[in-house]
TrEMBL record:
The chain crosses the membrane at residues 41-63, 75-100, 121-145, 165-189, 196-218, 248-270. This is ABC transporter permease. Keywords: Membrane, Transmembrane, Transmembrane helix. One of its GO terms (cellular component) is plasma membrane.
Amino acid sequence: MTTATLEPATAPARATAAPRLTFGRLLDAEWTKLRTVRSTVWTLTAFVTLSVGLTALICLAAAGELSAADNDEPVGAFVTWGLLFGQLAALVLGVLVASAEYSSGMIRTTLAAAPRRWPVLAAKTTVLTGLLLVLGTITSVASFLAGNYFLSREGIGLEISDPEALRALLGGGLYVAVLGAFGLGLGVLMRHTAGAVTVGIATIFVVGNLVNLVPGAFGEWLMKLMPGNAGSAIANVEQFNPELLEPWVGFAVFAGETALLLAVAGWLFARRDA
């Protein structure tokens, strides 16, 4: 007769804990998506090329007239002139960071991996603005040096150590960083690239000039508070329009408008289906 021996029950293997989704991992994911998309490279190349190239061209063409004794144009407004057009690329990049995921369906994968939507929006904003702040500052310096070279040949060059010049060079990076966040807010809000870019261009470039047609003090303040007019002042050594807000005041207004747009976009982002 044999005696049955009971084998001790083997404890089930403990499941490997999934790595915790931290904000750092979200930043890494957003940075990977941003730098591996071809549109990012082309958009940033256009930003640098337009900003530096057009500044050099306008200063080359206008330096002779600016040096004339009867000239009343603000010379400092020309040394970052190309940024007026390069900023369009920063706006488009901001829109694409959000809208491209909707058009490709990638947003479903993103939200499946990170269901909490506010941290996702915060990570997108942080990566985008960080990149544009660095590249925008470098581009502003390059634009200043390129344009100032031709102005200096006519004896009207500016000193880069001048406080207003230093403010404008740092301000160029700050402005395009917040402008990119503005585009991101539009992209999240509208979820359509063409529509968001159209609204962004109209708001920054078109409406800001059309409000000059509104009569009285209300029209004057409306013109000052439009996002493009308020924000761009910080990126220029001097202003073509002396009626605009002071540079830091205008930038604070623009940053507040962008924060409000992102808050509205984030609120909808957290409640709408992907």
